[in-house]
Design goal:
Elements: H1 3-10, H2 14-23, H3 28-52, H4 54-71, H5 73-92, H6 97-118, H7 130-145
Helix pairs in contact: 2-7, 3-4, 3-5, 3-6, 4-5
Organism: Psychrobacter glaciei
Pfam family, one: Mpo1-like
Keywords: Membrane, Transmembrane, Transmembrane helix
């Protein structure tokens, strides 16, 4: 990838990211699937990570939060709270790596079904950073409803 393209991609605002992500998330069925599965994937990733290495997972979570902080302070706070809720759920439901992995796989299958219904490819196939924008899109959807 050219340096100019990398700079342009990293300089996007939250609104630009969300707008581009929304293009492939217009169908109501796909939206509902994503509203359920994106947080499920996020928590399952944390669960798998915590099963393998608590410190690595916490450091990686902090780096993810830095990405969100660069985009928006309210998003950073919302995702920070969400991560704390996820960690609390993991404490209450101490599931094994295999269970978290199964949840992860099922949620991804559902998302691909949603994109089949939508008729559009997932955004992350264009840019892997969209894997972090999905949770931001869900959080933004929740913040706009209130």
């Amino acid at each position: 990838m050219s340096r100019n393209r990398q700079q342009k991609m990293s300089k996007r605002t939250l609104e630009q990211w969300l707008s581009e992500y929304s293009v492939s998330h217009q169908n109501l069925i796909n939206k509902k699937i994503h509203w359920l599965c994106v947080p499920t994937i996020f928590v399952s990733l944390l669960g798998m990570g915590m099963s393998l290495s608590v410190w690595f997972t916490l450091v990686l979570s902090a780096l993810v939060l830095l990405f969100y902080m660069k985009l928006s302070t309210p998003l950073f706070l919302a995702m920070g709270i969400f991560i704390l809720i996820c960690l609390s759920v993991m404490t209450l439901l101490p599931l094994s790596f295999k269970v978290w992995a199964a949840v992860f796989v099922v949620a991804w299958i559902a998302q691909f079904i949603g994109h089949k219904v939508e008729g559009k490819k997932p955004s992350f196939l264009k840019d892997l950073q969209f894997l972090l924008i999905g949770p931001a899109w869900v959080a933004n959807s929740l913040m706009r409803r209130n």
